[in-house]
Amino acid sequence: MTVTLADVAARAQVSPATVSRVLNGNYPVAASTRERVLKAVDELDYVLNGPASALAAATSDLVGILVNDIADPFFGIMASAIQAEIGGPGGRAGGERLAVVCNTGGSPERELTYLTLLQRQRAAAVVLTGGAIEDAAHKAAMDAKVRKLADAGTRVVLCGRPPAPETGAIALTFDNRGGGQELTEHLIGLGHRRLGYIAGPEERTTTRHRLEGHRAALAAHGIEEDARWTVHGRYDRRSGYEATLELLRRDPSLTAVVAANDSVALGACAALRDSGLRIPEDVSVAGFDDLPFSIDAVPSLTTVRLPLAEAGARAGRIAMGREEAPPGGIASVRGELMVRGSSGVPRVS
Amino acid sequence: MTVTLADVAARAQVSPATVSRVLNGNYPVAASTRERVLKAVDELDYVLNGPASALAAATSDLVGILVNDIADPFFGIMASAIQAEIGGPGGRAGGERLAVVCNTGGSPERELTYLTLLQRQRAAAVVLTGGAIEDAAHKAAMDAKVRKLADAGTRVVLCGRPPAPETGAIALTFDNRGGGQELTEHLIGLGHRRLGYIAGPEERTTTRHRLEGHRAALAAHGIEEDARWTVHGRYDRRSGYEATLELLRRDPSLTAVVAANDSVALGACAALRDSGLRIPEDVSVAGFDDLPFSIDAVPSLTTVRLPLAEAGARAGRIAMGREEAPPGGIASVRGELMVRGSSGVPRVS
DNA sequence: AGCGTTACAGCAAGCGCTTTCTACATACGG
DNA sequence: CCGTATGTAGAAAGCGCTTGCTGTAACGCT
Description:
The structure is a homodimer. By secondary structure, chain A is of the alpha/beta class. Helix content of chain A is about 45%, strand content about 15%. The longest helix of chain A is centred in the middle third of the chain and has 16 residues, at about 135-150. Chain A binds a DNA duplex through helix 2 and helix 4.
């Protein structure tokens, strides 16, 4: 039925062992023999049986990438960068790896199940991206799984996710707290004193860290926060729109709205415009991440740029063992404040 | 070292065969035995060896999704929808499949290599998304590969891609031509007679079809096209920005710019604004796809909505054999014209 | 009571590859 | 000219699972 190694061997008049060695190139084979084998492979249109190979060699060429939402460019950009480094087709010959992008949709169960699936496939490496869920039980389960994977020889890298000590995973963490603080300080510096904050979903490290940064900035400047100024929502535009309307309802005197990310900020802009408010004359808006579309908003968005592609690339290289892990297995990646048109001096109240 | 089926069998005092059958649930096993086995699995924290299982059963639970650019929400949205249907974790018990999103980056070689990799893994199904590359040699190679995959029992579905007759692949094609025509007709209806067109990369079916639709509309209304009115570029914002500047340079009297997709249209808007032109008073702009951010542009973008998520979901179901293939294996999916603020009556010249 | 059924469980033969160990040349130093 | 490297190829033992086939009880029927 399908062509097997043995068929190739027969055609090339050599043993299966030799064919395997030619294909893997990890054993000396006479040039003439190699050629004969390659010719047979070509003629028979032979394709290696991955599972069989993985079973026999006890290794696989699968690399898993877990993302919370593949439809969100935040993850798409990281995944793309990771995959480019993983090699996929394009790496050095023979080292072809299949990057598996798994979409957890932010669901704890799926996250765990995907990890099991990857463990089952004996993945060569796994990269976990984005914020983690802050549920003690879930975190413990995840850590245990990660440790098991690491023990089994799978390299685990966390990209844009807080470190998981004692699990053997390498972490490239985004400094969400620092970025959040810097952003809010910029607004305070402009003169804002009443700032609304649209946070991401609760129980997420990213959400918490950004919010903590925001609050740290307020505290540092002696601004007492009003509980009504914070609203939680999802990481999407719609949520930003609704949350902004809610904020406006709660306190129409707000002069700035800080959003959990750029998509949310865009929704906020739309809500403000629909409410007849000008940006930034009436209300300033700030986002986070600096996704490609942010610069196209009108006015363009003040935000914190996260080096998603760079971090992804680095995570990919570390996963492939092509770059050394940072000291202690943990590195913090800083964001950069991008001041643009959506933030300005507050209106005089 | 790692726990195997045999270990579980020993612990549960049954044969490996029984354990396998409990795990696969495809053979009657007494309830008491099943329980004993499940308990042992749990206690030993056993994880099935995927490759071994795939080898023995001659099937795998991998499903491949090929995308041109994972960082582009156009593909992210489709991939997300496909994956949701594939089941990943979430489908019916036991039917856990691993969706593999492969990023070709629009490169023909990578496209082919990924297909080989999936063939090697004996993927259960493969979904190819987005426009195809119009190179005769490449197309032939792809078709041959697809046919081989289909012959080997892998279900192949094309989503948003032109049909590949005789390959055994099911196609869900977007009516790019019709959408393009409708869009341009809308502009002509408003009174536009001098329309610039920013096309996508050459040698791509999507690019060609959308452009053909545009030209068909012009022709239908007796508008003679000026060769200077068309510029080719990539499917990104930057490209749209530059192409618009070029169009303006070539013919400052243009009253409308039609872009290959929404990202390009956003770039076009930015370029127009930077050139001191108002949208739509001075120049109307239209996009294609209706990605989530398009409604947030200022003014919001007139575009053609493509049911990305719906089509992806359907493709996923077909790939899983959970929905019947359309008659003839081909279905055309229509777009819907979304008239918004970026298009208006042309200025009087 | 005798026999065909039915319901489970085990045996053992692979699935297609990798890899260790062995075999055999040929080459080389003494 | 022999013993020992050296380079190359093959034989064969699995890797961990699935599954066809073969028991073997317990059951129901005439």
